[in-house]
Design a protein that fits this description.
mainly beta; 4-stranded antiparallel beta sheet; globular
Length: 388
């Protein structure tokens, strides 16, 4: 089943739910027709639907697309960066959360949390055709994943206290690494040798895993509080990390395996500080830091906290360079490969802010789905010669 219509149009809140009723794949395009409610699905009334084939989705090899997961919905939007418009929509299942792709980016991996169910899914999609390649069950509520550059291993943090390691060649779970806490975020070094596992909660530490040595734990980095979003330098020498209760981030030297700097932003968060996990309480709700990325080129670290993004030097002493206001609380951050644009989800407005990184200003707000959080820019390669 393939759906169409710009997000926000045709009563977007009424959506056909595809998970659990035999419909696993959907894409949004421009044509619109109405179909009746699907029996046995999650509910909803007649919705705009297109019956186009995936081959009509206009995904062009070598062109950059932002994939935006919607954590309170069942889908991901695909945005053409050049035109700043939604060109596709893939229905995945309940609460899509984590997203990752290998260096070649011919495949995109996404997890669905499926809150309230004993298992979530890891889904592999063809980045050009948008077709589902495979789907395997993993642990409960899988979150922010990472994949090795060669695409062989996907690390999946699950709420059972373990990171599940999926072998994409055999499509099986090869290992489960216990970190305790609530496994939540994952980073993998560019050459694919080390994984950095960042659970939330009491561990207050990052676990380091040697991937080539059979996914063996080789060390830990303690932080001052529960870890939140991380950002790893390209050479894996520095690990930047948001932690609960800090309007800023901490910086760890991965070889010394200790925090070497604690950075506080000069722009305060609005409201009264209440609790590390919740953050600062204002009349508009809670605010905290939840989005960290190293801009390509390694010269800057961007940190989204509340209604703004703060920019710091990427090297010690990590001095603050600028602050960009946003029109609501931000909840993740990713860059285009050339570092020209940053893409910052704003869940409360169901949109993504597109920021000109050099001009330091928002240039577009792109409507997406419910609860947008994790996102990634994908440049699909041309299909291999002789591929069907």
């Amino acid at each position: 089943m393939l759906r169409t219509g710009a997000p926000g149009a045709h009563g977007d809140r009424e959506r056909v739910r595809a998970h659990g009723c035999g419909v696993r794949f959907a894409v949004v395009l421009a044509a619109t027709v109405l179909v009746p409610q699907l029996a046995g699905c999650w509910g909803g009334s007649a919705v705009p639907v297109s019956m186009c084939a995936p081959s009509a989705c206009e995904i062009v090899p070598g062109r950059a697309y932002l994939w935006q997961t919607n954590s309170e919905g069942d889908d991901a939007h695909i945005i053409d960066i050049a035109s700043r418009s939604v060109v596709g929509r893939v229905v995945l299942g309940p609460q899509p959360h984590g997203i990752a792709a290998p260096r070649l980016a011919s495949v995109v991996y996404i997890t669905t949390e499926a809150n309230g169910h004993p298992n979530g899914d890891l889904i592999a999609l063809d980045s050009l055709t948008l077709e589902e390649i495979f789907r395997i069950p993993v642990g409960r509520e899988p979150h922010a994943i990472a994949v090795t550059a060669d695409g062989r291993w996907v690390y999946v943090p699950c709420r059972d206290g373990h990171y599940w390691v999926v072998d994409t060649q055999t499509r099986t779970v090869a290992a489960r690494i216990r970190t305790d806490g609530r496994p939540h975020n994952t980073s993998i070094s560019r050459e694919g040798r080390l994984a950095f596992l960042s659970p939330m909660g009491e561990p207050k530490r990052v676990t380091i895993v040697d991937i080539a040595a059979g996914h063996r734990v080789v060390g830990e980095i303690p932080f001052s509080a529960s870890t939140r979003p991380p950002a790893l330098a390209a050479d894996a020498s520095l690990l930047f990390h948001h932690v609960d209760g800090l309007n800023g981030f901490e910086v760890a030297d991965t070889s010394k395996r200790r925090v070497v700097a604690r950075i506080e932003h000069s722009t305060p968060l609005r409201g009264l500080y209440v609790h590390g996990k919740l953050g600062w309480l204002s009349f508009d709700g809670f605010q905290r830091c939840h989005g960290l990325a190293v801009r390509p080129g390694e010269t800057e670290v961007w940190s989204t906290c509340g209604e703004g993004v703060t920019i710091h030097n990427g090297r010690a002493p990590f001095d603050e360079r600028s602050w960009i206001p946003l029109r609501d609380d931000a909840y993740w951050l990713t860059f285009s490969p050339d570092g020209k644009y940053a893409f910052i989800p704003i869940p409360g407005r169901r949109e993504v802010a597109m920021v000109d990184a050099s001009a330091r200003k928002v240039v577009s707000h792109i409507p997406v789905g419910d609860g947008p959080k994790r996102n990634l820019v994908i440049v699909p390669p041309a299909p291999a010669a002789g591929a069907n």
